[in-house]
Amino acid sequence: MSLEINKPAPDFKLFDSEKKEVALSDHKGKNVLLLFFPLAFTGTCTKELCGVRDNIAMYNGLNAIVLGISIDSLFVLGKYKEEQKLNFDLLSDFNKTVSMAYGCLYADFIFGMKGVSKRSAFVIDKSGLVQYAEILEKATDLPNFDAIKMCLEKLN
């Protein structure tokens, strides 16, 4: 399933690394950048998320909340967030329902793993509509953060 621009984003509830339940609908009235990533503690994921960490002031200035989502457990994500000093929520999609709803789940991944989130980026506007969608097939590629920034700027 692929999400369409200007259509409602699937709502969800997932637990963050602090063991709190977070819903997309909790952030109505703000723009949301959803970043799906394959696995914590891997090179490309760390590069991507640390880059977002280092630019969080820009996202805050664009009235955007950043949420990172992976199939890792909330305990793994807690350790990862702590070690990398990430300044945004990481959500555990351990049961893979949200990755599936957003159409960004590998059937087969490396080392025989099944059902790992594809690196993807979605911008959801203040009313809950999808304004940007990028699903990468190659796990070593990064989202187009310039395009994401331009999308967020247009929403303000």
Could you characterize the architecture of this molecule?
This protein is of the alpha+beta class and 156 residues long. It has a single domain (13-18, 29-154), classed as 3-Layer(aba) Sandwich (Glutaredoxin). It has 5 helices and 9 strands. Strands 2-1-5-4-3-8-9 form a 7-stranded mixed sheet. The model has no long low-confidence stretch (mean pLDDT 94).
What do the pLDDT scores average to?
94
CATH class: Alpha Beta
What share of residues are in beta strands?
25-35%
Give the SSE order as H and E letters: EEEHHEHEHEEEEH
CATH superfamily: Glutaredoxin
Output the strand order for the largest sheet.
2-1-5-4-3-8-9
Total helical elements: 5
Query: What share of residues is helical?
Result: 25-40%
Structural class: alpha+beta
The total tally of domains equals 1
Biggest pleated-sheet summary? 7 strands, mixed
Number of strands: 9
Q: State the shape.
A: globular
Task: Identify low-pLDDT runs.
Answer: none
What Rg do the Cα atoms give? 14 Å
CATH topology: Glutaredoxin
Question: How far is the first residue's CA from the last residue's CA?
Answer: 29 Å
The CATH architecture designation is 3-Layer(aba) Sandwich
